Write a sequence for this structure.
């Protein structure tokens, strides 16, 4: 994405603005440089000390934050029962894959993983599609009732699923999709979050581009598909990643809407392991690692888009 | 942009293809409840431990091979979701043909007219092969609404290593009901253990966590008390016996005899605390024996529960029931009969360390595969269940009372609610529930 | 970041006068067509259940069999139910503790990572990473760390000669354990929002302050805190909502216990609706949650209209 392309996501806008701001600053600074330079030199020693201190704090904080994830790995690779044995072990006494073998042998983990993928992909494709369409309409089309509908969506955006869970559950049972993938996918796709993200993005698209296409005789659908969509790849990336993450980690609703072991997603699978008589925490951590890893990898690859998305929507 | 449309489409395709194959694409279909009315198929929903699941699978296979053309779909779900699932499926006429239910929950379904009356499928002689108390447990208004598939009771499991360290000789431990400890003797042992154990270990742990709250009633029964009077409605817990049982059990927490994390609403079950060595003794059901045998890294044995006015234990175990809406009532009843015939029951109990409900399998007729030595204690303990206990434990009000027991006992043990208030609250909860 | 403002662009339909009405009509049709897939999903799976929940809250139902109309009695029960009020109180306590800590820690970390540091990117990544971990996985990890009888923290405390803490048997430590994990999950989010806010502040201002002889602390208090105000407002809203809805962590870690000391409104609604066959009562608690959420959304919307959010 180049700086000059559609001033799209807020982050980009912020960056652009900052750009202008720094340009102004630079000019101002140049005029004062002489005055402040010696002052800077006096402080450079102190600055170095400051960096050292700050680095130390950063290291400590990072260690604290990363530790739970490290501990998950330690438990996942330790021999069974070692975590709760007396005595402090901060790393596995012997490094073992036994827990992974156990959990894969005894439980349909591969199926659960597959279910998470299938549900995640369907939720994502469906949600992103309908959100893009709606977001575009709210941003670039004028029609009667637009603001009313938009406000209605806004108002319900923050409602926690538990507030209407009983009724939603009865509904899903009533329409016959209880205990199927659809029972999880469709209610998840009804969320309004993405609409606002999409709308915000589309507002940034200059009306002239659309107008020009219209004068060329293009219909609304063609404009959307051929003119607008190619401009919104960053939006697509953000929306896709966030929706996938939300679906992958979703717990309360799938717990309620799925009934069969062979359709469970990974979070429900973890709960299933925990509720076994004599729960095996090593296996649970092995499964936790399996379930966390795909999102961690995606995060590390597409970090920029995740961060943009978080910044925009305040997910979580 | 880092990834093109084509590449992301390919990525999605790559991710989806194996996933769809793995999950068999079955998840998009409609409700799979009643097996689509196919005359030769049944669905059977249950929760199960590992050894139970293995046995269920084997028995289902055997049934299918004996009845050509019949398929039984076994669906194992987590216990926590079991009944909210079943409730939902019942309300949407999508229930499985057969499901497993504990004796406490069975009353809710039979009293709400959700289960198939099995009267016509069992004659007098067949009924007579079951332990009368267990047959009573599946009956409502004099009609059977299921078959008693297995039972299990709690006994006291002891970590003999820790007891020996505390100077309690293993030879002095009771072996049969006749020499069971009294409450006083039990208190003496607990106090002795408390004195010898380090702070982070505890004399014992009791299995009243979560839905296990009614196991507290064993203390009430031992004290000679009752929860509900013999008319099946009037609360009887606010009594001298009730106060005695509650005071005694409250004192476990006050005296630090049980781990503070082992109260009624704790998410940690008693068996974990015993098997990891935090508690020296554990009140545990026989169904945990296979797990303990593989997990516990110490020597342990089983002894009878302590007694006061009388001996008593909890009524564990489960029934198998047929839903009223099943399209194959006859086949479902045949399956139930198969599951409780002597050889099936014997196989199941032997593999899972559970107790049979048939009188012809009583005593030592089951060839338990694991820790055969401790099983006679459980068998002996099961004989302490009296018909009046069964009647209370299987009352249709029991599932609502269970909730009240969890709340009230936890308040008494953890939040310092007085014995008087707790009994008063329980009394009104029983009244409310049996309305 | 004004996701809460409603003012679309002026679609400049400046065609020839004669066809203007037709253009408008088509645009209306197209507009409704574009929003209809999302709208239909929302009507069926959101608006309909809200109405249904109101109906359910006036009934008593076990989940199967015929429900019974009971009028307002579920709401009457709410008012007199100590566990409901305790859950309400716990929700408030949880929110009041987590939100300020989240904000303060987020801002502190943002300032730290906005300054010159080696390997800044790696540090930032680490702090943000917990955000992609599911509530269930976090809860499971936390359970083994806070496990009372011989979990990691208590083992460390004992090894240091201190006494272990009753994470699972006493209300206050149990609440603290949940709060700690919630903050762990969320602090990264606070940090990146504040980072975005900090980066839009002109360095010039700091330079001016420095020349005026302001100490670092004064710069922070007088400049930074003031200038990230819009971010703070946005984060306040987001954190309150997230705290109000905390479910997965509590469900996995404490189940609302010990006693009811970590029971919050959403877990209590779930318990009634799905664990103890009190669906009508569960729905009534849900309606209370719904009303609180709507009131909060409304206040926030009113405020954000008069106040530009982060951007």
């Amino acid at each position: 994405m180049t700086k000059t392309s559609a001033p799209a996501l807020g982050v980009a806008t912020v960056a652009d603005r900052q750009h202008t701001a720094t340009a102004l600053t630079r000019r101002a600074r140049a005029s004062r440089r002489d005055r402040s330079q010696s002052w800077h030199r006096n402080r450079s020693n102190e600055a170095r000390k400051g960096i050292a201190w700050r680095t130390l704090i950063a290291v400590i904080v990072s260690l604290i934050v990363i530790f739970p994830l490290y501990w998950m790995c330690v438990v996942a690779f330790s021999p069974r029962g070692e975590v709760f044995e007396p005595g402090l072990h901060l790393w596995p006494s012997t490094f073992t894959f036994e827990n992974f073998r156990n959990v894969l042998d005894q439980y349909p983990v591969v199926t659960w993983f597959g279910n998470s993928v299938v549900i995640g992909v369907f939720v994502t494709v469906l949600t992103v599609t309908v959100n893009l369409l709606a977001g575009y309409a709210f941003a670039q089309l004028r029609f009667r009732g637009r603001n009313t509908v938009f406000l209605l969506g806004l108002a319900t955006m923050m409602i926690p699923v538990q507030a209407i869970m009983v009724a939603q559950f009865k509904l899903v049972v009533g329409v016959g999709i209880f205990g199927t993938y659809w029972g999880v996918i469709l209610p998840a796709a009804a969320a309004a979050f993405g609409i606002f993200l999409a709308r915000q993005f589309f507002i940034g698209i200059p009306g002239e581009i659309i107008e020009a296409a219209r004068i060329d005789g293009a219909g609304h659908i063609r404009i959307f598909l051929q003119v607008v969509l190619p401009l919104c790849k960053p939006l697509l990336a953000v929306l896709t990643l966030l929706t996938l993450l939300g679906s992958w980690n979703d717990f309360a609703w799938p717990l309620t809407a799925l009934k069969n072991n062979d359709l469970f997603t990974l979070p429900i699978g973890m709960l299933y392991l925990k509720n076994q008589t004599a729960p095996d925490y090593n296996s649970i951590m092995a499964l936790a690692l399996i379930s966390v890893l795909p999102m961690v990898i995606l995060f590390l690859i597409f970090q920029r888009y995740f961060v943009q998305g978080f910044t925009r929507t305040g997910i979580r | 942009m880092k990834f093109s449309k084509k590449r992301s489409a390919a990525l999605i395709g790559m991710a989806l293809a194996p996933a769809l194959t793995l999950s068999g694409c079955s998840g998009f279909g409609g409700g799979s409840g009643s097996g689509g009315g196919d005359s030769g198929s049944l669905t059977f929903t249950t929760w199960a431990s590992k050894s139970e699941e293995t046995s269920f699978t084997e028995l289902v296979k055997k049934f299918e091979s004996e009845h050509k053309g019949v398929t039984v779909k076994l669906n194992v779900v987590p216990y926590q979701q079991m009944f909210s699932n079943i409730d939902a499926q019942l309300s949407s006429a999508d229930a499985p043909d057969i499901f497993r239910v504990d004796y406490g929950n069975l009353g809710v379904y039979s009293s709400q007219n959700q289960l198939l009356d099995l009267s016509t499928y069992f004659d007098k002689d067949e009924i007579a092969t079951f332990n009368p108390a267990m047959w009573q447990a599946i009956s409502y208004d004099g009609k059977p609404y299921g078959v008693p598939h297995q039972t299990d009771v709690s006994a006291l499991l002891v970590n003999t290593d820790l007891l020996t360290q505390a100077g309690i000789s293993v030879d002095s431990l009771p072996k049969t009901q006749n020499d069971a400890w009294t409450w006083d003797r039990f208190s003496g042992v607990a106090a002795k253990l408390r004195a010898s154990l380090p702070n982070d270990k505890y004399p014992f742990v009791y299995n009243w966590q979560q839905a296990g709250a009614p196991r507290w009633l064993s203390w009430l029964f031992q004290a000679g008390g009752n929860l509900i009077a013999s008319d099946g409605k009037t609360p009887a817990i606010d009594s001298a016996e009730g106060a005695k049982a509650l005071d005694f059990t409250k004192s476990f927490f006050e005296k630090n005899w049980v781990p503070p994390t082992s109260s009624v609403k704790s998410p940690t079950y008693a068996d974990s605390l015993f098997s990891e060595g935090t508690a020296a003794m554990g009140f545990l059901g026989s169904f945990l024996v296979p797990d303990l045998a593989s997990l516990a890294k110490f020597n342990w044995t089983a002894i009878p529960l302590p007694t006061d006015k009388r001996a008593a234990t909890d009524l564990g175990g489960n029934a198998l029931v047929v839903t009223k809406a099943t399209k194959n009532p006859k086949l479902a009843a045949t399956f139930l009969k198969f599951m409780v015939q002597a050889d099936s029951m014997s196989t199941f109990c032997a593999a899972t360390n559970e107790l049979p409900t048939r009188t012809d399998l009583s005593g030592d007729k089951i060839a338990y595969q694991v820790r055969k030595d401790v099983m006679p204690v459980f068998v002996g303990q099961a004989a302490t269940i009296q018909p009046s206990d069964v009647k209370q434990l299987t009352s249709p009000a029991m599932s609502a009372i269970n909730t009240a027991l969890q709340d009230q006992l936890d308040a008494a043990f953890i939040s310092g609610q007085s014995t008087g208030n707790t009994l008063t609250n329980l009394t009104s909860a029983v009244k409310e529930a049996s309305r | 970041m004004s996701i809460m403002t409603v003012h679309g662009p002026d679609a400049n339909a400046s065609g020839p006068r004669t066809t203007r009405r037709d253009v408008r009509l088509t645009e209306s049709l197209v507009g409704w067509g574009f929003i209809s897939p999302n709208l239909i999903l929302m009507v069926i799976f959101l608006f309909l259940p809200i109405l249904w929940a109101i109906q359910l809250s006036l009934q008593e139902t076990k989940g199967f069999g015929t429900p019974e109309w009971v009028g307002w009695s579920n709401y009457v029960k709410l008012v007199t139910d100590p566990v409901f009020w305790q859950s309400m109180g716990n929700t408030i306590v949880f929110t009041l503790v987590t939100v300020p800590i989240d904000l303060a820690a987020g801002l502190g970390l943002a300032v730290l990572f906005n300054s010159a540091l080696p390997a800044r990117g790696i540090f930032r990544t680490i702090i943000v990473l917990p955000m992609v971990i599911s509530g269930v996985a976090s809860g499971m990890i936390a359970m083994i760390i806070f496990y009372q009888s011989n979990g990691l923290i208590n083992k460390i405390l004992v090894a240091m000669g201190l006494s272990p803490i009753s994470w699972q048997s006493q209300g206050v430590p149990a609440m603290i354990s949940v709060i700690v994990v919630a903050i762990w999950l969320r602090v990264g989010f606070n940090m990146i929002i504040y980072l975005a806010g900090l980066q839009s502040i002109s360095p010039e201002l700091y330079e001016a302050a420095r020349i005026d002889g302001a100490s670092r602390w004064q710069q922070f208090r007088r400049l930074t805190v003031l200038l990230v105000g819009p971010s703070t407002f946005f984060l306040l809203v987001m954190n309150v909502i997230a705290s109000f809805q905390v479910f997965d962590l509590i469900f996995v870690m404490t189940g609302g216990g010990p006693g009811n000391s970590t029971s919050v409104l959403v877990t209590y609604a779930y318990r009634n609706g799905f664990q103890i066959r009190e669906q009508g009562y569960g729905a009534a608690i849900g309606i209370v949650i719904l009303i609180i959420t709507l009131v909060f959304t409304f206040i926030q919307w009113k405020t954000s209209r008069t106040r530009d959010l982060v951007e």
Notes: The two ends of chain B are 67 Å apart (CA to CA).
